[in-house]
Design goal:
- This protein is 30% helix and 51% strand.
- A hairpin with a 2-residue loop joins strand 3 and strand 4.
- The protein has 3 helices and 6 strands.
- It has one domain: Nuclear Transport Factor 2, Chain: A, CATH 3.10.450.
- With 135 residues, it is an alpha+beta fold.
- The longest helix has 18 residues.
Length: 135
């Protein structure tokens, strides 16, 4: 198996578990300082603003008693002059306290990953929500 693929798999496993556990500042730390996070028409720039947006979102779900899980699959990794491009499908699952697991979103995640002393970091992430965003 390709070493970059294995590295990317480990990166996403760590990153999504940070987010889903509520460690939003640590999750935002997996982006570069000038990182970009795009979902639909919303663009957040800079690790500090990404952390703030993630904290607000996590707090809203926690207040509603909803646990979220992000499931990454069908990962494709390619070399890029700045590092790696990674494209994957991501399912967002929501579980209300005492309730069933509900698939909430099906998305495509396209990342530009760059190397750092701590491993890979996201320089640019574009999330396209199936059925909601233009391709």
């Amino acid at each position: 198996m390709d070493a970059h693929y294995e590295e990317a798999q480990r990166f996403y496993a760590r990153q999504m578990q940070l987010l889903d556990s509520g460690a939003t500042d640590e999750w935002a730390g997996t982006f570069t300082d000038d990182g970009v996070f795009e979902v639909g028409d919303t663009v957040v720039r800079g690790a500090g603003d990404i952390a703030e947006a993630a904290r607000k979102t996590a707090a809203q779900f926690a207040a509603a008693g909803i646990t979220r899980r992000h499931w990454i699959g069908m990962l494709a990794v390619r070399p890029h002059p700045e590092g790696l491009t990674a494209r994957s499908y991501a399912l967002v699952l929501e579980i209300a306290e005492g309730g069933d697991v509900v698939p909430r979103r099906s998305t495509v995640c396209a990342d530009l990953l760059v190397g750092s002393a701590d491993g890979w970091r996201v320089k640019h992430r574009r999330i396209t929500r199936d059925g909601m965003d233009p391709g």
